[in-house]
């Protein structure tokens, strides 16, 4: 394996491991909005919670959101794209037009509009169920990758052999191709999920208090500019997580 991939993977495992640990292991609380100190290295939250625990929980929820969205988008894109690309003809033309129609929709305004139906306005924010938001983000993002997979399968020998000899398809080759595409797309689609949720949070204040993410912390700290640890630390962690995912995504495609 490439050295860069192993380094990025090691850092990711360490960050995830520490986040999971401090998500379950609760450190002592203190007075609300205490700056970083020897007792509270990352300061305290608005309710006095140790910011180590708060950030750890936010990292876990951010990765959980991105991972579930990525998995769902990849499964839908691989399935849809493989069918459209393999059979070609009228089937492909019709299915591709559906994808193009979905890709033409303004995704973020659409997501915010849908969120208004199941979300609960709370002043400047919109309380929206975490897992329901995952579902709508996933259902509006898979089409981005389905178009690519359709063309790849259609142009490949797998697609050609399928169209010529229906019923005598080399399923082994198809499954191998699908596995490779799924591996390549999982991390980018996870990043897409995280970025989309960030957009929903920044523009529409969409979030779930029961599953705070790094974006939720940034939104909470938007009116607490003097309490720099409230927004600077989550912003740094968010940057670290995204950089690691981007590097892993690049390295996975090269393996």
Any overview of this molecule?
By secondary structure, this protein is an all-alpha fold. Helices cover 73% and strands 2% of the residues. The protein has helices at residues 3-24, 51-87, 89-103, 107-118, 130-139, 142-155, 157-164, 171-204, 214-220, 229-254, and strands spanning 120-121, 126-127, 206-207. A three-stranded mixed sheet has the order 1-2-3. A hairpin with a 4-residue loop joins strand 1 and strand 2 (126-127). Helix 3 (89-103) runs antiparallel to helix 6 (142-155). Mean pLDDT is 86; it is low at 162-169.
In short:
With 255 residues, the chain is mainly α. The chain is built from ten helices and three strands.
- The percent range for helix content is over 70%
User: How many strands, which pairing sense, and closed or not: the largest β-sheet?
Assistant: 3 strands, mixed
Strand order of the largest sheet: 1-2-3
The proportion of residues in beta strands is under 5%
Give the uncertain stretches in residue-range form. Answer: 162-169
Please state the overall shape, judged from the principal axes of the Cα atoms.
globular
| SS-based class | mainly alpha
**Beta strand count:** 3
Distance between the termini: 7 Å
> What is the string of SSEs from the N terminus onward?
HHHHEEHHHHEHH
By DSSP (H or I, 4+ residues per run), the number of helices equals 10
Rounded to an integer in angstroms, the radius of gyration calculated over CA atoms is 21 Å
Average the pLDDT over all residues and give the rounded result: 86
Organism: Stygiolobus caldivivus
Protein name: Peptide ABC transporter permease
InterPro entries: MetI-like_sf
GO cellular component, one term: membrane
């Amino acid at each position: 394996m490439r050295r860069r991939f192993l380094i990025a993977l090691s850092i990711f495992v360490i960050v995830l491991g520490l986040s999971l640990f401090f998500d379950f292991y609760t450190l002592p609380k203190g007075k609300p909005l205490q700056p970083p100190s020897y007792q509270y290295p990352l300061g305290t939250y608005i309710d006095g919670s140790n910011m180590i625990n708060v950030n750890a929980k936010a990292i876990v929820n951010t990765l959980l959101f991105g991972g579930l969205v990525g998995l769902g988008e990849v499964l839908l894109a691989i399935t849809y794209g493989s069918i459209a690309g393999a059979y070609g003809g009228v089937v492909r033309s019709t299915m591709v037009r559906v994808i193009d129609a979905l890709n033409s929709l303004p995704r973020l305004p659409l997501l915010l509009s849908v969120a208004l139906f199941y979300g609960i306005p709370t002043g400047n924010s919109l309380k929206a169920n975490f897992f329901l938001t995952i579902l709508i983000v996933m259902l509006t993002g898979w089409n981005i990758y389905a178009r690519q997979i359709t063309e790849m399968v259609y142009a490949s020998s797998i697609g050609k052999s399928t169209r010529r000899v229906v019923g005598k398809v080399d399923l082994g080759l198809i499954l191998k191709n699908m596995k490779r595409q799924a591996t390549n797309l999982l991390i980018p689609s996870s990043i897409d999920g995280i970025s989309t949720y960030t957009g929903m949070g920044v523009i529409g204040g969409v979030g779930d208090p029961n599953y705070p993410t790094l974006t939720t912390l940034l939104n909470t700290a938007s009116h607490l500019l003097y309490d720099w640890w409230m927004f600077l630390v989550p912003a740094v962690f968010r940057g670290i997580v995204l950089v690691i995912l981007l590097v892993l995504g690049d390295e996975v495609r090269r393996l």
